[in-house]
Amino acid sequence: MALNALICDDSLLARNQLKKSLPAEFDANIVTASNGVEALATLRSQEIGLVFLDLTMPELDGIGVLEAIKADAMDCLVIVVSADIQPEMQKRVMELGALAFIQKPASAAKLADVMHKYGLI
Amino acid sequence: MTDFQFSEEQRDCLQELVNVAMGLASDKLARYLNTLVHLQVPAIKLVKTEQLPEHFADRHQQQSVTMISLGFFGDQGLRGETIMLYQLENVGVIAKLLGYSDDDSSEAEMLTDISSVLTTTFLNGLAEQLDNSFSYAAPRILSSRDKHFAEKLASTAEQWQLALQVDIRYQLTDYSFNCDMILLIPGEAVLRLRLILDQILASF
């Protein structure tokens, strides 16, 4: 059965960029959210195995989503895809349980590398 | 009359390009000041340049501000000017953190240095995504604790047809440091920018 994956980003361009850059062999049903509140609503109502999460978003940012995922012990993997590339921020998201950090704009090669490394493709 | 407005898709596209460029600039600033910078979603809007002095007079009437400008020139008619507006409430703290002495000339020197870091990193990041490259004029201080701030901003702004106002808040972990960045772009560069945004959108 195909995995359900969530792309959460406030930018339509970024969501489309990411969707197009995913490896062809990644067999998943893609759903999207445009802020952290929408993402948490999706995570609480659907079985989502993998989240591609932006950090800088309105309503609720990516850090807030990671904190909620950790607090509620949700069973999903998170790959942060963000323009906020400060080393301190990358450290923080990893401490909050993210699987990996990818700098925006996410290249197809980088996405494939990370997803291959963690057995997602 | 030429229509300089952006469609919702073009605005979203530009906001994402600005977001990525801002991320690069924030990372540079964080390393420069050795602190964490909290990024916020950039607010972008197009405003008529004649409205700028009034807008900023309203916004900064309670605070002293320093305004630093940097001209940029790219390929295919992309050019413009950035204006960084700094509120001066916490400048002394930052000056001490960076080892500048506590006088006005050092304050100007420090803000010019920070502006160079922020604007050139931001603009280089933007140019790369637009498949362009920018060169820069030397930064200049347009106003510092100046009673004629609005007039000076007006005389700078009136050279341009359109202002792309990018509200950026660089909030630092240990203290508040706010600055606004404004991109001033001539009309023909706006038209060029829209074409490039359409090409980017068409590729996705």
TrEMBL record, chain A:
<keyword id="KW-0597">Phosphoprotein</keyword>
<dbReference type="Pfam" id="PF00072">
    <property type="entry name" value="Response_reg"/>
</dbReference>
<dbReference type="InterPro" id="IPR001789">
    <property type="entry name" value="Sig_transdc_resp-reg_receiver"/>
</dbReference>
<protein>
    <submittedName>
        <fullName>Response regulator</fullName>
    </submittedName>
</protein>
<feature type="domain" description="Response regulatory">
    <location>
        <begin position="4"/>
        <end position="119"/>
    </location>
</feature>
<feature type="modified residue" description="4-aspartylphosphate">
    <location>
        <position position="54"/>
    </location>
</feature>
<dbReference type="InterPro" id="IPR011006">
    <property type="entry name" value="CheY-like_superfamily"/>
</dbReference>
<dbReference type="InterPro" id="IPR050595">
    <property type="entry name" value="Bact_response_regulator"/>
</dbReference>
From TrEMBL, chain B:
<keyword id="KW-0145">Chemotaxis</keyword>
<dbReference type="InterPro" id="IPR028976">
    <property type="entry name" value="CheC-like_sf"/>
</dbReference>
<dbReference type="InterPro" id="IPR050992">
    <property type="entry name" value="CheZ_family_phosphatases"/>
</dbReference>
<keyword id="KW-0378">Hydrolase</keyword>
<protein>
    <recommendedName>
        <fullName>Chemotaxis protein</fullName>
    </recommendedName>
</protein>
